[in-house]
Amino acid sequence: MTWRDQQLPADHPPVKSGAIGVLLVNLGTPDAAEPGAVKRYLAEFLSDRRVVEIPPIAWQPILRGIILNTRPKKSAHAYRQVWTDAGSPLAVITRQQAEAMQARLGNEVHVDWAMRYGTPSIPDRLQALKNSGCERILLAPLYPQYSGATTATVVDKAADCLRTMRWQPALRTLPPYHDDPAYIDALASDLSKQLDALDFEPEVLLLSFHGMPERTLHLGDPYHCHCQKTSRLLQEKLHRPGLKFRTTFQSRFGRAKWLEPATDTVLAEEAKAGTKRLAIAAPGFSADCLETLEELAIQGREQFTEAGGEQFAALSCLNASDPGLAMLETLLRRELSGWISA
Ligand SMILES: C=CC1=C(C)c2cc3[nH]c(cc4nc(cc5[nH]c(cc1n2)c(C)c5CCC(=O)O)C(CCC(=O)O)=C4C)c(C)c3C=C
Ligand SMILES: [Fe+2]
Ligand SMILES: [Fe+2]
């Protein structure tokens, strides 16, 4: 019997110790493609002050009075276009990534996954890792480019959860990896393969990142710079002299000015300027989701072809592809060094 066991009351749950946990986290998604579930998800997501930086006294009446009464129906329709038998693509792919990391990293670590908004929640999975004996946890927000609205809010949520624990696990976080050679190489190899497999040769490749209010750039958020750097490094690595690259920002939300140029504007602009063949990739998304499968692959195609474009392809995200998983393993092992054997 160890010293610690001796301190526990007889009815205390068993305490295992010394394990290492990894928690992969992505943005979150509704539990079902129906308005009620979308409303619950949007209420949590859009109430996060890291996401909408308007004082709650001004924002909450707009959110509760207008947005949550109109957007869920429209968004649920969009979700239905991409929903799978196993659920929302973002959750399905994140789970696949976690299962693959468990197989690659072996029994020395427990790998789990969570969603920042919706389920499975960060507190729920952090507590589960702790209950399974993890005294050290690597928190991995799956956002290559840092922003307050994504990476930071994951860390905030984990910290809120740790605040409730008497006996906290030690926490490490995965840094942004927008310029990491492992990430750029994985994207270049995966996108090259997809480009070579197309039945047409694109004249233009759009690199579309999720947008943010432009104001966040002036307030010092590095997101825009991280996106531009990823884009530059990826173009260099892909090395396709005949291909024109453009970096754009998608998914504008609300009335404020967002980062430009906007993906939908550029799609129409390119087609009107005579581009007939175009491909689009979304390097900032580690998993395909509503924003890539519906907004880019479905709406983007319509925007391009209605403006005169002829051939269009939306390329997949890294998802659970071999290059994507190898990259994730490299990044995680680097952060786990000293915690697990090499
Ligand atoms: C890659 C990073 C993301 C950033 C940065 C980001 C910022 C951001 N998003 C909204 C509003 C919405 N985003 C929505 C969906 C969504 N956003 C991201 C990623 C980033 N968002 C992902 C991966 C997804 C897809 C989720 C899924 O279920 O597949 C939505 C919901 C859908 C809809 O109703 O359109 C909203 C709303 C804001 C305001 C914002 C600003 C900082
Ligand atoms: Fe978003
Ligand atoms: Fe969208």
Structure report:
This protein has 342 residues and is an alpha/beta fold. The protein folds into two domains: 18-177 and 325-336, Rossmann fold, CATH 3.40.50.1400; 181-314, Rossmann fold. The chain has helices at residues 3-7, 35-45, 56-82, 89-105, 122-131, 148-163, 181-196, 214-218, 223-238, 263-272, 290-306, 322-336, and strands at 19-28, 109-117, 134-141, 170-173, 204-210, 244-250, 277-281, 311-314. α7 (181-196) packs antiparallel against α12 (322-336). Mean pLDDT is 95; it is low at 1-6. Bound molecules: ligand L6N33NVT and fe (ii) ion (2 copies).
Please give a handful of descriptors for the protein shown.
342 residues; alpha/beta; Rossmann fold; four-stranded parallel beta sheet; disordered N terminus; binds ligand L6N33NVT; binds fe (ii) ion; Ferrochelatase_N; Ferrochelatase_AS; EC 4.98.1.1; lyase; heme biosynthesis
